[in-house]
Amino acid sequence: MFLLKKIVSPLFLPLTLSLLLMIAGLIFLWFRKKERMGKILLTFGVLLLALLSYDAVSSRLISPLECRYPAASLSEARGAKWIAVLGAGVRAEKGRPAASQLSESSLARLVEGIRLQRHLPGCKLILSGGAVFQPEAEAVLMAGAARDLGVSEKDIVLDSASRDTEEQAGRIRDIVGRDKFILVTSAAHMPRSMALFKKEHLTPVPAPVGVCTRNRQTLSPDDFYPAAEGLLKSEKAFHEYLGVVWAKIRGKL
User: Fold this and answer.
1) Do the beta carbons of residue 130 and residue 109 sit within 8 Å?
2) pTM for the structure as a whole
3) What is the pLDDT of residues 137-196, one digit of tens each?
4) What is the distance between the alpha carbons of residues 74 and 141, in angstroms, rounded to a whole number?
5) How many whole angstroms separate alpha carbon 81 and alpha carbon 50?
6) Domain extents for the chain?
7) CATH assignment of 74-209, given 1.10.10.60, 3.30.720.210, 3.40.50.620, 3.40.50.1760?
8) Across all residues in the chain, what is the average pLDDT?
């Protein structure tokens, strides 16, 4: 099921879905009796790609996810014994510094976890993420980056077997038990993460990072053009909504 999810889910993300529609439309255009269908599919694919690349659309998709949980305050975090940082992908390549092998989201999560740990002496840092399609586990690479950033080896606990958020929730439950802990992940990922952790009878203190949406008072010329950043926000939003649907279908939420 895990492999099926990884193979099928990208087909429903904005870029892949738009390209599939456009390719199907082009194929139909070669057949006289299917020209109308080809034009419809091609037009829909182009419009979908364009719309999801505009910040006005992508921000409205991702904002409900990112605004669900506010940033964690130190007063809320006090008393926590653990800080759980969820991995978000790596680009493993020998010879490069550990931090350079982390995805942008993984690095942002790790930095926030380290920041909180420095304000909470005695807190252990749980780094969670297994090896899915790469030789090195995410947790191992995050641990290397954490040590480079000054975190002591004795303050790091690894979960290097979890392949997704659902498995991370179960393994972190086994580590923290009934202790109070902080959960660090991307703001858009936090609602699904909290739901899965609560399913394991855990109530972590949410510490979201990597907020994409901004409260802007004025318009700029960039607002009138599609951009890769807008498409990326749409991709993140689609990924999370699909994750929620998948978890509900399987009875995990």
Assistant:
1) no
2) 0.91
3) 999 999 999 999 999 999 999 999 999 999 999 999 999 999 999 999 999 999 999 999
4) 27
5) 46
6) 2-66+227-249, 74-209
7) 3.40.50.620
8) 91
